[in-house]
Amino acid sequence: MSNNHDSHSDSNFDTISITHSETDSDNGASTRVHRRPSRVNTDVCFPMTEAAYKTGGLDFDALEEYIKDENEKRRKEQRRRQRRLSEPASAFLKRPNGKYKHYEGNEHPTESLYRFTFYSTAYSTVHARSLAEIPPTGLTLSDMIKAGCWWIDVLSPTDLEMRDFGRIFGIHPLTVEDIETEETREKCELFKEYYFICFRSFDQDHYSPTYLQPVSLYVVVMKEGILSFHFRPTPHPSNVRRRIKQLKDYVTVTPDWINYALIDDITDSFAPLIRTVEFEVDSIDELVLILKESEQTDMLRRIGHCRKKVLGLLRLLGNKADVMKGLIKRCNELRWDVVISNEIVLYLGDIQDHIITMVQNLNHYEKILSRSHSNYLAQISIEMTQANNQINDILSRLTALGTILVPMNLVTGLWGMNVKVPGQDKESLGWFVSILTGLLIFAIVGVVIAHRTGIV
């Protein structure tokens, strides 16, 4: 009796948690908040079913069942919209209870709907709002996947979609969790039927407030296909599809080649930025010691901005060489019948060399900027010392002038008081001329002494 009660309580707990999640979703809350579902079978330690290891980890029955459910949901949504359109006009005049969604940056309502992109060597590229919309009339997604090498790119997958992907494609719960939580550490992990790569790019929109911010790309490479996930728009998938279109008559497109092309495109995206940094560093290094005082007002700002960019690039490129090294090392550990070809390994090694070169260049630029920063501060200190010395020279001259004029002012000031002036009872100007001559001689002697001592 007690066991039945406990089981009933656990079941209720799961239901309450799910209902709460749905309520939050209806109220417009972000689905990214619910990272830990309460169902036991979604735990990372829950064992995978045997069906997950069929046909290279892909369960076609689960895939068709998922598409069937998605089509049913879409039909219900269409019927619901038709009922809303058939309502009387007064219903549209009511004040809406919800809030309008605000789109920022380059985001657009119609563009954000097409989050799924399917590519196959046997079919053209298809953009869709869900997996169910990918296959055309008369075909199933299973048939399209079986036709040849395939690639599914997903933008901003939800937690529910990731769990469905894990169930359909046999993705390990640890991989699903890394993608759901948007794991930031770059790595390469090898599983039974696939290998998983987390590789980071950056926001390349110069006008975006998140420019140069990291953008993670998660790639699941299987024997016959590849899955890629990212939570922000990035040009790399479209660049790779364009490259495939240009080279499909000359190369054999495989999942490993698509994975290499993605990594290569991400790595190449750093080259223009590093070249810009190189020009800026050379300019700073040449101008920091020769600019005039009026032209040095923004030098410290330029140095600080350039160092910030260099450190950001080093943070993005820091672990990529280790990821490539691990990927090349594990190529021979794959349990597939067809391992990664030696040609792909050579290409991956070339990418590793490029990454190491870029990191070395950035470290060199950082040293140059650090030296330029020190030189700039030293030059500022020298200029301040020179200005202080000039002020001290002026003050010394003023002091010497005051030392000469104060005694003269004392003598002449006494005559303005009620004292007896020498020679005031005589009509001649002898005393007056004698006193002026004495003051003049005193001033000349004081100037000569100050000049000899270096004061003036």
Automatic annotation (TrEMBL):
<keyword id="KW-1133">Transmembrane helix</keyword>
<keyword id="KW-0472">Membrane</keyword>
<feature type="region of interest" description="Disordered">
    <location>
        <begin position="71"/>
        <end position="91"/>
    </location>
</feature>
<feature type="transmembrane region" description="Helical">
    <location>
        <begin position="394"/>
        <end position="417"/>
    </location>
</feature>
<dbReference type="InterPro" id="IPR002523">
    <property type="entry name" value="MgTranspt_CorA/ZnTranspt_ZntB"/>
</dbReference>
<feature type="transmembrane region" description="Helical">
    <location>
        <begin position="429"/>
        <end position="450"/>
    </location>
</feature>
<dbReference type="InterPro" id="IPR044089">
    <property type="entry name" value="Alr1-like"/>
</dbReference>
<dbReference type="GO" id="GO:0015095">
    <property type="term" value="F:magnesium ion transmembrane transporter activity"/>
</dbReference>
<dbReference type="InterPro" id="IPR045863">
    <property type="entry name" value="CorA_TM1_TM2"/>
</dbReference>
<dbReference type="Pfam" id="PF01544">
    <property type="entry name" value="CorA"/>
</dbReference>
<keyword id="KW-0812">Transmembrane</keyword>
<protein>
    <submittedName>
        <fullName>Cora-domain-containing protein</fullName>
    </submittedName>
</protein>
<feature type="compositionally biased region" description="Polar residues">
    <location>
        <begin position="13"/>
        <end position="30"/>
    </location>
</feature>
<comment type="similarity">
    <text>Belongs to the CorA metal ion transporter (MIT) (TC 1.A.35) family.</text>
</comment>
<feature type="region of interest" description="Disordered">
    <location>
        <begin position="1"/>
        <end position="37"/>
    </location>
</feature>
<dbReference type="InterPro" id="IPR045861">
    <property type="entry name" value="CorA_cytoplasmic_dom"/>
</dbReference>
<feature type="compositionally biased region" description="Basic and acidic residues">
    <location>
        <begin position="1"/>
        <end position="11"/>
    </location>
</feature>
<dbReference type="GO" id="GO:0016020">
    <property type="term" value="C:membrane"/>
</dbReference>
<dbReference type="GO" id="GO:0010961">
    <property type="term" value="P:intracellular magnesium ion homeostasis"/>
</dbReference>
